[in-house]
Each structure stands twice: as C-alpha cells, then as structure tokens.
Design goal:
Blueprint lengths: L6 H27 L6 H21 L4 H19 L1 E2 L6 E2 L1 H18 L3 H13 L6 H10 L1
Antiparallel strand pairs: 1-2
Helix pairs in contact: 1-2, 1-4, 1-5, 2-3, 2-4, 3-4, 4-5
Length: 146
C-alpha cells in the first residue's frame, strides 16, 4: 500500500512529530500562561493530528491531499467553535483567540505533514508572538486611566 515505508519515510515522520510536539508545547504554553482553556496538550494533539493526517494522505495518495486538507480545516473549525463562549449576562465573547490558535495550529501540522519544516517553524514563532502584541483598546484604556 505504501511504497515509501523505508527508513527515510519513518525518519521524516519522527522529525515531523517531534516538531509538532515542540510547536504544540510553545503555542500551548503561551495560551496556558494567559489562563486560556486550550493549552499544551490540546495544541500538541491538534498539530500532531493534522500532521499525521497530512503526512499519511500524501504518502498513500498524493492526489487526495486537498480533500484531506479540507476535512482537517472543517473538523478543526468545529473544535474551535466549541471553545468560543458568549456570556449570557454581559454578551461578551471569549476564547476567540484560543479557537483561532487551534485553527492555526492545525495549519502548522499540515505544513509539517507536507515537509515544510521552515515554514512551520516561522508559523510557530508567529503563533507565540501574535497574542503578545498589545491590544489597542487596552493601550487606550491605560491612557484614559492616567
């Protein structure tokens, strides 16, 4: 079934899954440091799962990768939607960034699964740094308090 079951195939998989774990750890640690619900375990499993689906689909049938990719995106969208909460009292929406980080994590897993390691590393840094950018509304509120 898989003509690429040699040592190189398996070593590439090991590199990919280890990079998935590193990415999940870094992104999840950033989310956990802010007290958000999707932390290290969730992000590691999302990146790893997307990586496995992508890697194996590319190995089994290179022509089916777009179909598998579409299913990963919709499945992760469903998972992220379950994290988004709208408060009944104040109507405030929470966990939107965490849901987006899960969606973005899946894309990192897909990049790893296709063997785009440098792109994945840059995207991991992006996912860790973006939530640390100060929000304009918070900067404005701090100025108003002065």
């Amino acid at each position: 079934m898989l003509e690429n079951q040699g040592l190189e195939f398996q070593l590439n998989f090991v590199v990919g899954i280890l990079l998935s774990l590193l990415g999940g750890f870094l992104i999840g640690a950033e989310r956990e440091s802010r007290g958000k619900p999707a932390g290290i375990s969730t992000n590691s499993l999302v990146i790893g799962g997307a990586m496995i689906f992508t890697y194996l689909s590319a190995a089994v049938d290179p022509n089916s990768t777009s179909r598998i990719a579409a299913q990963i995106v919709s499945g992760i969208g469903f998972l992220g939607a379950g994290m988004i909460i709208k408060g009944e009292i104040d109507g405030k929406i929470t966990n939107l960034t965490t849901a987006a980080s899960i969606w973005f994590s899946a894309s990192i897993g897909m990049a790893i699964g296709f063997g785009f390691y440098l792109i994945a590393i840059v995207c991991i840094a992006f996912a860790v740094l973006v939530p640390r950018i100060p929000h304009i509304s918070k900067i404005k509120n701090n100025r108003d308090d002065d």
